[in-house]
């Protein structure tokens, strides 16, 4: 079974279009029947929402009057994630194959490649790859730089930047598949999703793998391609670590949830199964928290970051996350107290679901999972001599 | 109809229009403040603002109609609708027509606000800051009893009320608590050509 | 008659609170003044007040719509 990262040594960077096509074979000519194939594979998006790919394509096709647009989302604004950069740098033609299959099947007039402004190596690799493509594909492509802020990778924010120059989330409806880039129905896919689509186009099957970024207390942090049946424990082992030595695992990065290490060990790296347990694999970040680190201080730092990344468009998000993070920081710096713990519970419930985008929901999920997993530490925290920062993740 | 009666009605309706319009403007300014009071709900300010505006139009209509049909003034309907087209006190009456038409635009756009969207509605609504002073100047210029003590006192009180409301508004800061933060964030995520 | 639900544009809303004054049965305000709307359809007897709240919102952030299936 083909894998996304198969092929020559990743350290050598991207292959030429010629080598890539020789290795994998050409992409067959496809029509709208391909959408049924996508449905059969059950493929889901890899940007964080795990939304069924075929459903998105159907929605765009349904709303297409003349032309549509494709947004290749390589913004990777989640601080702990590295997989999109890895894929763009080493397998750009796989991503582009997926994008151009979508463009052909759905009738796209534009393919916009949206890459984080600081991801210069990945951006260069993608630009060089586009330059190698045939003129009919090259002429569709334009590049946009995603500002280095957390919400800039969100679908609506990306489209907002492309249309109006500012990467802030907008109210939905209208959804991108109805009205997006240049008012056209727009298909937005994470680069890993497009890589999957490129392989499904050739073989009719998904890879059954997922790209994981493993971070934190492991000897070899970085990007791994793991089977969907492998567990969190397997991923930690591949990175040279041991889940027994960890206090807790962060599943899904800043948009995810904390689980204590013992419970996490046997969790499969499958977005669907994790969702049934109330967890979100998200963009595939697995963070390992060492026993020696203080979870309360760690979470306080994460909440401070998430609060500062609010786009300040919705009161409940801006004021709510700020209040939540200040309460966490008070607990971290001065010790546990009943008032702040009650406030955290109350505000978390108040803030959830009351923004125009899911940013406050993500922050609240992170906090609530932390308060459950680290209930003891939150209840008994006393100030340390040195306040800890976010780990080298 | 007795010309004197018409004339008194015109002047009286004009005075009432000025007072009502002043109240409408003051309520409009105060509604942007973030003052909370359990005894004075905000929907009351909004409701009064809307109802008084409609009442203003009623008295304004009375003012205009009685002025036009009054044989003494020799005004035709055109004079009431086309600014500066009357022979009688051309400038001052013209200003009145302008004020009237601005108010009409403001009220009509408010009635169809849902169709226009907030931004368009708001842009037209700002014309209040032209309609009100132009109306005051019209009153000072056309009224035969402008310089009578009553009218002077009423006009002075109206100007003081709006002036005070504006000062309160200017010293209260932004109506939107997120405005400054939003602008800061937007400048961090805008598309910079030099990237 | 199909049930109507409140929809609020969270970006337009700036927490003025007129809606909460008119419909305390369904809308309360959080610690920062922004409305928390009870989920579910608007009861029939409150619809006139709900329509007034929609009309009175200074930012046109509140709307009443029949719930449609998503995507």
Q: Topology of this protein?
A:
The complex is a heterotrimer of chains A (about 400), B (about 200) and C (about 70).
Chain A lengths: L16 H8 L9 H8 L11 H11 L4 E7 L8 H8 L1 H15 L1 E9 L3 H13 L2 H4 L2 E6 L8 H10 L21 E5 H13 L5 E8 L5 E6 L4 H7 L7 E6 L5 E4 H4 L6 H6 L8 E6 L4 H14 L6 H20 L3 H14 L7 H15 L1 H6 L13
Parallel strand pairs in A: 1-2, 1-4, 2-3, 5-9
Antiparallel strand pairs in A: 5-6, 7-8, 7-9
Helix pairs in contact in A: 2-3, 4-6, 5-9, 13-14, 13-16, 14-15, 14-16, 15-16
Chain B lengths: L2 H28 L11 H28 L7 H5 L8 H22 L1 H4 L1 H8 L2 H15 L6 H22 L8 H10 L7
Helix pairs in contact in B: 1-2, 1-7, 1-8, 2-4, 4-7
Chain C lengths: L3 E5 L9 H5 L4 E3 L5 E3 L9 H10 L5 E5 L5
Antiparallel strand pairs in C: 1-4, 2-3
What does this protein structure show overall?
The complex is a heterotrimer of chains A (393), B (195) and C (71). Chain A is of the alpha/beta class and 393 residues long. Helices cover 45% and strands 15% of the residues of chain A. Chain A has helices spanning 17-24, 34-41, 53-63, 83-90, 92-106, 120-132, 135-138, 155-164, 191-203, 232-238, 261-264, 271-276, 295-308, 315-334, 338-351, 359-373, 375-380, and strands at 68-74, 108-116, 141-146, 186-190, 209-216, 222-227, 246-251, 257-260, 285-290. In chain A, the strands form 2 sheets. Chain A has a 5-stranded mixed β-sheet with strand order 6-5-9-7-8. A 4-stranded parallel β-sheet of chain A has the order 3-2-1-4, sandwiched between helices. In chain A, β7 and β8 (257-260) form a beta hairpin. In chain A, 56% of the residues are buried. Chain B has 195 residues and is mainly alpha-helical. Helices cover 73% and strands 0% of the residues of chain B. Chain B has helices at 3-30, 42-69, 77-81, 90-111, 113-116, 118-125, 128-142, 149-170, 179-188. The longest helix of chain B has 28 residues, at 3-30. Chain C is 21% helix and 23% strand. Chain C has helices at residues 18-22, 47-56; strands at 4-8, 27-29, 35-37, 62-66. In chain C, the strands form 2 sheets. In chain C, strands 1-4 form a two-stranded antiparallel ribbon. Chain C has a two-stranded antiparallel sheet with strand order 2-3. Chains in contact: A-B, A-C, B-C. Chain A binds chain C through residues 55, 59, 170-171, 175, 177, 313-317, 319-320, 323, 347, 350-351, 354-356, and chain C through 9-15, 30-34, 36, 71.
């Amino acid at each position: 079974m083909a894998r996304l990262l198969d092929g020559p040594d990743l350290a050598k960077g991207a292959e030429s279009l010629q080598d890539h096509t020789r290795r994998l074979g050409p992409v067959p000519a496809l029509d709208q029947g391909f959408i049924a194939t996508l449905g059969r594979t059950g493929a889901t998006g890899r940007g964080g929402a795990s939304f069924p790919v075929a459903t998105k394509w159907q929605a765009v096709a349904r709303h297409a009057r003349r032309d549509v647009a494709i947004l290749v989302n390589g913004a990777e604004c989640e601080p702990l994630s590295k997989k999109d950069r890895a894929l763009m740098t080493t397998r750009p033609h796989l991503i582009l194959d997926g994008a151009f299959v979508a463009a052909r099947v759905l009738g796209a007039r534009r393919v916009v490649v949206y890459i984080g402004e600081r991801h210069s190596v990945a951006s260069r690799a993608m630009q060089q790859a586009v330059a190698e493509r045939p003129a009919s594909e090259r002429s569709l492509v334009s590049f946009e730089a995603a500002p280095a802020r957390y919400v800039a990778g969100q679908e609506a924010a990306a489209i907002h930047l492309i249309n109006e120059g500012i990467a802030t989330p907008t109210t939905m409806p209208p959804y991108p598949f109805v009205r997006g880039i240049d008012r056209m129905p727009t298909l937005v896919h994470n680069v890993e999703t497009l890589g999957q689509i490129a392989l499904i186009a050739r073989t009719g099957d998904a890879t059954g793998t997922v790209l994981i970024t493993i971070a934190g207390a492991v000897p070899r942090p970085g990007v791994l391609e793991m089977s969907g049946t492998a567990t969190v424990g397997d991923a930690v082992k591949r990175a040279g670590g041991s889940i027994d030595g960890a206090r807790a695992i962060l599943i899904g990065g800043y948009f995810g949830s904390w689980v204590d290490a013992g419970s996490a060990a046997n969790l499969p790296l499958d977005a669907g199964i994790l969702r049934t347990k109330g967890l979100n694999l998200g963009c595939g970040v697995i963070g390992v928290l060492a026993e020696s680190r203080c979870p309360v201080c760690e979470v306080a730092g994460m909440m401070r970051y998430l609060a500062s990344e609010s786009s300040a468009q919705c009161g409940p998000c801006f004021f709510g996350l700020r209040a939540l993070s200040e309460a966490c920081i008070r607990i971290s710096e001065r010790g546990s107290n009943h008032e702040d713990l009650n406030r955290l519970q109350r505000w978390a419930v108040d803030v959830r679901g009351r923004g125009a985008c899911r940013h406050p929901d993500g922050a609240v999920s992170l906090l609530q999972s932390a308060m459950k997993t680290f209930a003891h530490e939150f209840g008994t925290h006393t100030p340390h001599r040195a306040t800890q920062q976010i780990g080298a993740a | 109809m007795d010309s004197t009666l018409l004339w008194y009605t015109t002047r009286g309706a004009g005075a009432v229009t000025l007072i009502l319009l002043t109240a409408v403007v003051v309520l409009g300014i105060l509604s942007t403040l973030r003052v909370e009071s359990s005894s004075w709900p905000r929907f009351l300010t909004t409701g009064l603002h809307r109802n008084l505006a409609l009442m203003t139009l009623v008295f304004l209509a009375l003012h205009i109609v009685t002025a036009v049909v009054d044989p003494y003034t020799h005004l035709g309907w055109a004079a009431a609708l086309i600014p500066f087209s009357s022979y009688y006190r051309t400038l001052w009456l013209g200003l009145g027509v302008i004020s009237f038409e601005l108010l009409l635009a403001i009220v009509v756009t408010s009635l169809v606000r849902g169709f226009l969207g907030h931004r368009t509605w708001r842009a037209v609504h700002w014309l209040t800051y032209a309609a009100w002073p132009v109306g005051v100047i019209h009153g000072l210029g056309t009224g035969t009893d402008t310089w009578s003590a009553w009218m002077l006192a009423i006009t002075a009180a109206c100007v003081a009320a709006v002036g005070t409301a504006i000062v309160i508004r200017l010293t209260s800061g932004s109506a939107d608590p997120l405005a400054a933060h939003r602008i800061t964030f937007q400048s961090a995520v805008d598309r910079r050509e030099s990237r | 008659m199909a049930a109507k639900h409140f929809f609020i544009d969270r970006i337009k809303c700036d927490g003025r609170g007129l809606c909460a004054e008119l419909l305390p049965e369904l809308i309360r305000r959080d610690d920062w003044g922004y409305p928390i709307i009870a989920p579910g359809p608007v009861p029939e007897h409150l619809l006139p007040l709900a329509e007034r709240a929609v009309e009175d919102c200074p930012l046109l952030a509140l709307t009443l719509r029949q719930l449609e299936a998503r995507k």
